[in-house]
Amino acid sequence: MAGKQRQHWRSMCKSLVFGILMTSCIMLLYSLSMPQVPLNMPEVPVSYSCAHRPSQPSSTPERTCTPQVDIMFMKTHKAASSTFLNILFRFGQKHHLRFAFPDSRNDFFYPAFFQRSHVKDYKPGMCFNIICNHMRFNADEVAKLLPVDTSYITILRDPAELFESSFHYFSRVVPLTWRMPGGDKLAEFLRDPHYYFHPEGFNTFYLKNLLFFDFGQENMLELDDPRVDKGIRSISERFQLVMLREHFEESLILLKDALCWEMEDLLFFKLNARNSSTVSKLTPDLRARALQWNALDWKLYQHFNKTFWEKVDAYGRGRMAEDVAELRRRNAEMADACIEEGHAVDAGSIQETDMQPWQPIGEKSIMGYNLKKNIDEAQMKLCRKMLMPELQYLTEFGVNLWVTKLWGHIRSIINW
Length: 416
Hints:
Strand order of the largest sheet: 4-5-3-6-7
Shape: globular
Distance between the termini: 26 Å
Helix content: 40-55%
Number of helices: 15
Number of strands: 7
Structural class: mainly alpha
Oligomer: single chain
């Protein structure tokens, strides 16, 4: 018994030391990479667009229109946003668009509110077409960066499922979870969240109304606080399309209709997906507790779930079903052409280092793909882009990710 106690305390001490080291590294990297924000940045109006408009309009039997190329995508956490980011990257390259990228890392200094100075090489008056990396939304600053007719797009996920995913992915960078007993920390936390949670704790925003927080709202409000409804109204007024992760294909069809894109622009492979064996199954009780704990996100999701299906009804349910079937057919064709064995594989089975996705600390639960061999050069180029993880794609765009890469090396040394 004494031996087991010593082993238990040794394990706890090791976790504490590693935790302190990791937290110190995060704070140091954050402070080193944080840009100096000019106090009085001049206001220079942004033109309607700096893009070369597509020479050929998009034509269908129903209409002829010009694709919308000025886009703000609010990349929420753990909501299939990495998959949509890949779609945007390929669309931007197809139309030679200019992206507003972060500098030194893959987000705009999240969780700080977005500032124009976070954009790589930004100077007042510069023109960009697309911004799409993680940020904490700041409507005024974003509006000063993009053309006035920019389309604002985002995506939401069922808050109970989002909480499960966020808890799994981020728990090792949220110190309050380190002292939780038992093998099922998610269930233990939801049993009595207030016992463990502290609003001022390091990185605790990942575990409480994360959607509301991402949109720049206050995530600790009571549900009946008038600022909740005000926040939802401001999001509704700003974003022309709010997609749903649970209905991703239908969301893409609505996007195609709203932005006058082609079906080929929507083709995708599911990226950054977890191995199903690592997903905690939410019982009805745990789901109810997760929704109660994330009540602001649940109210937000219910609002946009309603407006989403209103848009589907306006589009036509039958027409939607036909278009989704067509999208699935074309995606299946691409999977057959591009993917070895036709499906995602565990991280340990990915053959190319360049195709390895970013993993959560302490495990390799995110799946990836192997490219088929012996396909023609043009097809190989498209397949590789469709399967390329986010960090590798950003590197291809020329984004300097030294902070992100350094953090990756530190995580490898810690070897949780």
